Each structure stands twice: as structure tokens, then as C-alpha cells.
Amino acid sequence: MLPGMPAGGTDQGPKHCGGEGVGPLSYKSYQEFFRFVTGRDPYPYQQSLAECDEWPQVLHIPTGAGKTAAVGLAWLWRRCYHPDPAVRQATPRRLVYCLPMRVLVEQTRDTVRSWLGKLGLQDPAGLESGRERPSPGLPGSGGKAGVGVHVLMGGEEPTDWAVHPEQNAILIGTQDMLLSRALNRGYAASRYRWPREFGLLNNDVLWVLDEIQLMGVGLVTTAQLDGLRRSLGTFGPARSIWMSATLDPAWLGTVDHPVPLAREILALTEADRAHPDLARKWQAPKSLQFWREAAPVDKHYAARLAAFVADCHVQARQQATTGTGVGQTGPLTLVILNTVPRAQAVYAELVRLQGNGGNDRCIPSGRSGASPSILLLHSRFRPYEREQRVAELLTPPGPGGRILVATQAVEAGVDISARVLITELAPWSSLVQRFGRCNRRGEYGQAAVWVVDLLAGGATTKKKARKENVAAPYSPEDLAEARDRLRRLHSVSLADLDQLPVPATTENTYPLRRRDLLDLFDTTPDLSGSDIDVSRFVRDSEDRDAQVYWRLWPGAQEGKAPGTAGFAPPQREELCPVPVYGAYGLQEFLRGLKGPRARLAWVWDPLEDKWETAKADQVRAGMTVLLAAQAGGYSLSGWDPAAPGPVDPIPVGRADQPASTRARPGQWMGGDESTAVGRWQSLAEHDDAVGAALEQELDNLSGLALPSQAMEALRLAARWHDAGKAHPVFQETLRLSNRDCPPPDQSTAWAKSPGQGGHHARKYFRHELASALAFLESPAAYNELPEGWRDLAAYLIAAHHGKVRLAIRSLPGEEAPANVARHALGVWEGDPLPDPALPAPVQLGGGAVLWPLRLSLAPMELGFGADGCPSWQERMLRLVTWDALGPFRLAYLEALLTAADARGSASACAPDSSPAGSAQEERR
Question: Which of 848, 862, 533, 465 is nearest to 686 (CA)?
Fold first, then answer.
């Protein structure tokens, strides 16, 4: 029996998985499929979603009613198992599951992996671990086993999902990580990686936006992106589904996206409400009370609230043990605070009350016979520690139960059910989400919700509360509206909440426009190294994060900069999301590092290939900052600006790959880190390997119906993409960097070498610029394609490392002899190509040849040249605005060639060398 085969089922022969592929299983119906995966029948709305003719735009479903399973399993069914090949073909190969800000993604990831495990589609030893393996029968998954599951959180990943654009994949992340990438400015990612992720996240993709009422300005951005994809065009289907328990379809009406029609909205029906399981959740009792008339947020607030929480938990424990044995699982009491500092303070007071001095695992209690565990969970932990806490949270508590102190992090993406919920007053949409974490499955005959109203410390009026801004991070107006609604309620069951209208939202000040998107396609920084800031499209201004990680290195305490060689780039497990602004933010923390301590914070400069001290005023959303362990700022309670050092760093490196002495902190403009493959490889051999990888991609993507001209442009670009490596500068770098292992002969143009290439003799030298210029000056190759498509080939050649795209210009610090008319990125006017020391012509891949020529940088001039030919920038801007391509399609083709180049490089690795070195640059 094949993995995932239903009991009693038989293999009816090859079955489809993906638009063009073949999968190992079949099911008679979606109901049978859903039952096999989940152990129950789907709700009527879940079945409708899987079987409808067109994806709805809106899923208006209450919290706790199975939205994640509805969209995830519907996508799997339609993509891999639907009996109609047209449906499989029309289903995008990538599902992007976007959760709102400040929430946890681990449970969603684990849920998805459990589904795939039951279906036999998981990939435990394939792409997710960074190792290749042949598929047992899923060519529709791009020759890889199963469906990839990837969490996008920034930092170095064990595998690169973008290297396999043909694979069926589920991508999970928060709106800051996903939207920034969809806007070509990926947070906590190398700038040279931005374009490929931009291309793949906007083509052949289904975006699922969960709990959209919590997204703020990001909601309008998702609607605009969806509208722009439709108008500018994509390869393959690109659709969006917005989900929420509290939404108004009018929120999605923007300048480029119409308000969804009634037929495009899927909501619960009477059949759903009559379903026994949903009916129990719908009517689950949740009594509502306020804790005091108003709670002043003063220095005694945390202690008073902690005492109240302890009393509530003891009462819940007593109710739970009535008529039960000692081994009974204890209740969960959930406490949700609006800010991390208040959550940390209440947690500390609870620990103190229980007399255990800081251990959050099992705290002895003097109030009952059993010991509750106390857990703190918020979004300001490093993933390494946060995943441990989430794992503990999802483990049934002991007889004493559990007290969970949390923040907005549990509002979405976490399936927990508390007997008692104590929450600070929040905007109505947030409260609805919080209420959904109480008696979530209707398992309790009694459940209580307590709301803590807020007053400023010592205040006696709402006016002073407004002045002291205890409402932050929310507005006093939003809290006032929520307070008025709550005053009219005595219960917050799903049935009660359904009777209330959806509150209005404020207008977005910064909607993404078409011209903004076209500007964002260009990833060239300005002369100061700055970029267009997309944070105004991603999050509200007071809620923007940077990423921080802590390390130890020799001389750190004395203010010495970290090294480069052997200093690994930041790993996902060690990156802590930290607010940029406010008293609790990174800017204020850095301002507090005075004198010698100011050199305990560093940022990587990819232009100059060196570390720079981090300046408070230069910190922006999405930036990654390295702190020396001695700087402090982190404790067992997570990010804490007042915590002294040293901070224990997270161990970096993976057990399945040997440590690489070639590791570097990040990419840099002049780097060619991917040249080390453990052996010498000729330019022709490498080009052929890239061409073979490209053909494999195109074969698995045949269902996308890429234009024949686009595929020919890709093939031509694969043959010419590294022609510039025949340049004298590149060939000299390879020879000098491998003196202990010289090339087998001096008459071959080499593309790869045993060891890592060093710095080129010319600063910022880019071989791909030389490749593109040579292609433009080789009529036999350039004229193989029709007008327009030939410039596409030139663009793909130049852009395959993400460093030369729309503009060609010199960088600060570049130098050339006075008699050189033009120079840019280490290429000089009149440079010979290939190296005159090499016999002509130089063989490229696929039978192409490079005849001797002199490079001309005339295309870097603006406008039209003396020969009437348009400049490089003019040619490339035409591609971006060309109806046949446009920004999304152009970036997708860029991603295809980049992926083929990465796989071609990895295939060259010698058997005794790790592919990590050659693939390292591509992952970043």
C-alpha cells in the first residue's frame, strides 16, 4: 500500500498531482479525502470551497470554525487530487498563507506538515532539509518528493524554496515577511534575493490572507497587489482569498481592486450552523464581565492583575476537578496583554506569587493541591526559544493546569481553548479573535471572559488615560468603541457576536499605486545605499520591526568589528523581531549604547563588504542588526532593553551540513561566492549544466504555457549568462585564489574552481555585466530573437545574480585609468573578451561560441546613442511596461534562470565537497 492510501483502498494506477504531474493516490470524493486527513467529514462550507467552480475572494467564517483546514485542504485537493485535469491545471502550485502581524506561525506549519504526512506528501529528507532526492512518483512536484512547506521568517534557511520554482509548495509567514517580499523589498533577506522572491510570490500563486481585520495598512496593499496582478498580467493563475470572522467586503475596494460581489463571498449557511460540531462551537458559553470598573496602569498594576489571575485559575481548577480523578488534565487560563512589557511584568509577578523565582515550567502553588505551569509567550522571542514555548503550550498540561501570559501573538494562528480568558481592552476585531481562544471547541459547560479596562496610572478620568496613552499600541477611539459594544453584552459566544455589525475602519493614507510598484521593480540603491521604504505599505507606522541577533566574537567587548571569513550569516533561529520605535524599541536601545559600548551593534554593508556600526537614526523596518552578546537586551522573557548582558547566543550551523570556512556574513556587490564547487569546471560544462536544469524546469512548468519567445530567451540567456567569466579579471581571480590547486590547463575558460574566489583586482567587478554587453555586441546571438524578446535575453543574462538589473552605473570608490572613457562595476570601456590568453573562440553552452570583441559601455548612457540604439535603461524599462511581460512576468523569468543557475552550480560539486559553499550565495 502506498503512503497515505485510505484503508481498504487500492492504487488505481498513476494519478495526477499538479497540473502536469502524476501523483500516487486517488479518492472517490473530497469528503473521503478530507475524512482521511482529518478524521471527520468536512463542514458544508469546507466542501463548497473545495468543489466550487471558482475560488471565492472572501471567506467570512467565525474563528474556530476550521478556516485553515478549509483553504489548505481545498488547495491540496484541487491541485493534487481533483479528478478534472482542468481544475488541477487552474490551481496555482504555490499556496501562500499570510498571517497578520505579531502572531505565531509554528502551529500552522506543524498542522500543514501533519496533513502532508498522512497523505505521504511530506518531504522530510528532500527540499526542506536542503538535500536533493529523487521523487517516488510526483513529477508534478518538480521531480521532488511531496509538497514543500516553508516558513518565511528571514535569515539563512536550511533550504531555498526559490531554487525549485516548479515544486508544489506551501509558504507560511507573517504579513511583514511576506508583503515585503511581494513588494520586492524582502525584510531580513539579501537585496540580491529580492527579485526572485518577488517573481515567485506574484505568479502561479494563491494568497490566503488570514484574519484580515488585524492587518492594518497591509490589507489595502494585498487588495492592490491582487488588482495589479490582474491588470499587469502573470504567468499562471494568481488569486487571493481574504478570511476573517469580522470583515466588511467594502474594505477590499481600492483603486485597482473592486469590492467583491456577493457571489464571490463564502460564509456559513444554515447547514453549517446545524452541523453538530459547529453548533456546539456556535453556542459555546462564554460569560462576559469587567474586572473592576477601570484598572489604573500604575506601578502596582502587574501585581494586582497577577493576583486576580491566580484566583481565577484556582477557581477554574476547582471546577475542573469536581467529580474527577487526580490524573485529570488541568484547565488553561489565558491572559492577554496589549504590550510585551506588561506581559513580562505580569508573568514575573505570577512567578513571584508561586514562589519559584523564575522557573516557568512547574511552579509550586500554595493555593491548591496541584501545581500549575506558567508560560510566557509573545512575538519578541527568538524562534529557537519561541518554538520550545509553543511546543510546551500544545502539550496537555498536568493536573494543576496552565496559566499562559501572552500578547496579540495568540490572536491568530494558535489553536488553543481556555476555560478562563482575561484580556485587556482592545479594538473590537482583536477582542473577537481573543474571545475565540476561550471555550473554542465548546468542551466546557462553563467558561468565563474577563475584560480589563485601562486607565493611566493614578488617573481618575478617561481624559487622563488618553493623555498618558495607555491605549498604545491602539488608539483611544478604537478602545472606546469596543468598550461601548461590550457594555451591551453579557456573553461573547459566536452566536452573540454574530448579531453585532462590523465596525468601520479608517482610510489608508498610503495605498500602493501602479507607479509605486513599477518604481519598486528597480532594486538599485541610490548613491547613499538607501532604498525605497515599503514599510508604509506593510504595517502601521507604530508597529514596524527590525531583526536582531546576538553573537560572540574575538574582541567584541573591546569594540572590534566581527570578521568576515567564517562568520556565518544570521540564521532564522536566532533572529528576534524587535520594534523600531518607542521607548521599548531598537532605536532607543542603540541610543543607550554610549561611548565604547556604541561599537557593540553592527550592520552588514553589502556594497563595501564590511561591517558598519549601527546608528540609531539609521535603523528602519526590515533591517537586520547584529549585537555583541555583551550588549544585553534579551533575557528569558524575550527582548528586554533593560536586560544586562551577556546574552546567550543561539548555536548556528546545522548538524546535517559541515561547517564551512567559506561562510560570510552576507553577500556583497563584488562577491562571486558561488564559484567554489570542489573542482575545476569549464565555462562550457557549467553552461550546459544550467541549460539542463532550465530544461527540467520548463518541462515541469509546461502547463503554464509560457510564450515560446520567452522560453527561447531563457535558453539563450542560459548559454550566455556567464560569458563574462572569460574576462581577464575573472580568470585571474580564479588562478590566484587556487594557487595550491592550479587549473589542469591554461587554454580553457573556467567558470568554477576548487576553492572560493577571492576579491577581484577591480572593485565591484561583475562578470554578468560583461556577459550582457558581449551579448549585445554579438549579432549572431542577439538577432536570434525578435525585437523585444532579444532585450529580454539581455536582461536575464545581466540579472541572474540580482546585482545588475535596470541600471548600469559606476559605484562610489570605483577607479579606472584616466584614458578609460567609461567604466561601471569593474568593467572598462574597450575591455577584451575573452581573455586574450585564451584560444578563440571560447566555447559556451549549447554549442554557442564567444568570438573576440571589445566591450562597449555606451548602453550606460541615457537616451539614445550615436548609432541610434536605446540605452540599457531605456531597453529595460520597455520590458517592465511591455504588455507581453510587465513587472510580474519579467521577475518570474528572472527567477527561473536564477534557479537553474543555482542548480547547475550545485550539480558540479565534487563528491567530497559540500554543496553548501556553491549554494550559499544563491540562498541569500
Answer: 848
